[in-house]
């Protein structure tokens, strides 16, 4: 029985593509878990999802022309930013409405290009990802992203907390809130550019926001929240790959499904812990 269990644990990692996928989800888990906590703290979940969808047309055009996907995605972000800025200048259209209109249009355009019968086979993977198809270049980008994001969050930790808690008075202490906001959005954009190649345009936000949402239900201290979120992201990614291997399901969707299940469990655990705390306080 022990041998059977051991075989079940190691069988999914016998192939090189599976080991690369595991390393990819570990690296993305470290990045997404830590960065996602700040996304939630700054209430940037919608903005992050909008950025992810804005990438799609650029990714598709890059794939069609043979350019690196990261360049196409970056171009898509620039076009989206310019379009949103132009639409927001219209008095009758607010910024949130401009974001919704532009991002929906870009997502529809990207999906149309990716799923068109005239497009080469495989472009549909840009929507749902292909973490089992990552190569050495993708792993190098993910590793570089993890180093840059974690180092930046460590250096900016105090400023991020100050702006998040007291934006109005941050300037008096020498911290410019718009600069901190811009740096955080740059980190989010960089994470999306790298992670979207493995997780896909429609599922990448799950890696950034899902584990952090789980951690927030369990703890409210930022350092512990970041650590818990990273651990949940790595475990959910690994569990998703196991599910994909044994259930023969898509890897990206399996990972997203495990993250959702983890969130439900975390919310339930947080609610139970809160009730126990209330009961103890009442009995005392």
Between the first and last Cα atoms, what is the distance in angstroms? 49 Å
SSE pattern: HHHHHHHHHHHHH
Supply the number of helical segments. 13
Q: In the residues, how many domains can be counted? A: 1
The biggest sheet, with number of strands, parallel, antiparallel or mixed sense and barrel status, is: none
Percentage of residues assigned to helices:
over 70%
Could you characterize what this model shows?
It comes from Baekduia soli. One of its GO terms (biological process) is transmembrane transport. Belongs to the ABC-3 integral membrane protein family. The structure is a single chain. The chain has 284 residues and is mainly alpha-helical. α2 packs antiparallel against α10 and α2 packs across α11. Helices cover 81% and strands 0% of the residues. The relative contact order is 0.16. The longest helix has 33 residues. The protein has 13 helices and no strands. The chain has a single domain, classed as Orthogonal Bundle (ABC transporter involved in vitamin B12 uptake, BtuC). It starts with a helix and ends with a helix.
Please render the helix and strand layout as text.
Blueprint: H1 2-10, H2 16-41, H3 45-54, H4 56-65, H5 69-88, H6 95-115, H7 125-128, H8 136-165, H9 167-170, H10 177-199, H11 204-218, H12 222-247, H13 251-283
Task: Summarize this structure as a short list of keywords or feature phrases.
transmembrane helix, globular, single chain, 284 residues, 81% helix, mainly alpha, transport, ABC transporter involved in vitamin B12 uptake, BtuC, transmembrane, membrane
């Amino acid at each position: 029985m022990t041998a059977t269990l051991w075989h079940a644990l190691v069988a999914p990692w016998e192939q090189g593509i599976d080991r690369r996928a595991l390393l990819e989800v570990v690296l993305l888990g470290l990045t997404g878990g830590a960065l996602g906590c700040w996304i939630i703290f700054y209430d940037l979940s919608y903005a992050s999802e909008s950025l992810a969808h804005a990438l799609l047309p650029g990714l598709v055009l890059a794939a069609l022309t043979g350019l690196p996907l990261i360049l196409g995605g970056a171009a898509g972000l620039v076009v989206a930013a310019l379009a949103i800025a132009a639409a927001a200048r219209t008095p009758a259209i607010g910024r949130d409405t401009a974001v919704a209109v532009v991002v929906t249009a870009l997502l529809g355009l990207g999906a149309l290009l990716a799923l068109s019968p005239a497009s080469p086979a495989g472009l549909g993977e840009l929507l749902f990802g292909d973490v089992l198809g990552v190569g050495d270049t993708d792993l190098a980008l993910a590793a570089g992203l993890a180093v840059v994001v974690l180092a930046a969050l460590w250096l900016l930790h105090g400023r991020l907390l100050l702006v998040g808690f007291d934006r109005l008075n941050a300037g008096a202490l020498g911290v410019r809130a718009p600069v901190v906001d811009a740096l955080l959005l740059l980190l989010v954009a960089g994470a999306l550019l790298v992670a979207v190649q493995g997780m896909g345009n429609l599922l990448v936000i799950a890696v950034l926001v899902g584990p952090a949402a789980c951690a927030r239900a369990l703890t409210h201290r930022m350092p512990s929240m970041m650590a818990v979120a990273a651990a949940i992201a790595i475990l959910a990614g690994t569990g998703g790959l196991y599910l994909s291997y044994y259930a023969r399901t898509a890897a990206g969707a399996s990972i997203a499904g495990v993250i959702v299940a983890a969130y439900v469990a975390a919310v339930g655990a947080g609610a139970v812990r809160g009730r126990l705390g209330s009961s103890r306080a009442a009995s005392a």
